Amino acid sequence: MSIESSQSIWHSAPLRAKYQALGYDKNTVTRTHRIFAGALLSAILALGALYLIDYMALRYRIGRDGLGAATATVTILYGTPLKNGEVSIFWDQPQTETCTRSIFPHLGYPPCWYAKRHATKMISRNPPAPLSPGPSLRRSDPSHAIA
Fold first, then answer.
1. Contact status, residue 134 vs residue 91, Cβ threshold 8 Å
2. E strand or H helix that includes residue 39
3. Whose CB among 19, 35, 80, 110 lies 3.0–4.6 Å from 24's, allowing a Cys bridge?
4. pTM beyond cutoff 0.85
C-alpha cells in the first residue's frame, strides 16, 4: 500500500479535525491503517493456504485409496414446517448425500461435518404461486376485446 493512499484520510478537514481532537497524528493513523491492512491480507492468505492444503490432502486420499476413502454418505431426511410451528419429518423416504472428508467443500460435494449437522432438508414452507397470464396476454385496451 502506498503512502499516498493511506494518507488520503487527511485530505478531509472534518476527519482530520476528528482524529486530531482524539490525539492522533498523521503517523499514528497511517501506522494503524497499515497494521490492519497487513492483518487482513495475512488472514486472507492463511485461509487461501488452508483451502489449498485441504484440497491437496483430499486429492492425495483419492489417488491413494480411491474415491470411497475420501467421500462418505449421509442420510438426509425431508421435513416441512407445520402451521403450529412444529416440523413434520418424512421418515419413510431417507435419501443419501455424498460428502467429502475435508474442511471445505470440494468436487461439488459439501464437507461431511456440515452435511451431518444439516441432515434434515426443509421443503418450502410456501406453496408455489398460481400461474397468472403474462403481460402479453392481458388486454388493457378495450378496443381489442372479443365481442
1. no
2. helix 26-65
3. 19
4. no
Question: 115: buried, middle or exposed (CB in 10 Å: 19+, 13-18, 0-12)?
Answer: buried
Q: Which residue has the cell 392481458?
A: 138
The whole-angstrom separation of Cα 14 and Cα 30 is 17
pLDDT band at 79 (very low <50, low <70, confident <90, very high): confident
The domain segmentation of the chain, as residue ranges, is 3-64, 67-122
Q: What is the pLDDT of residues 12-45, one digit of tens each?
A: 777 777 777 777 776 666 788 889 999 999 999 9
129: cell is 404461486
CA–CA gap between residue 16 and residue 10 (Å, rounded): 5
Q: Which amino acid is at 47?
A: L
Q: How remote is the C-alpha of 134 from its chain's centroid?
A: 34
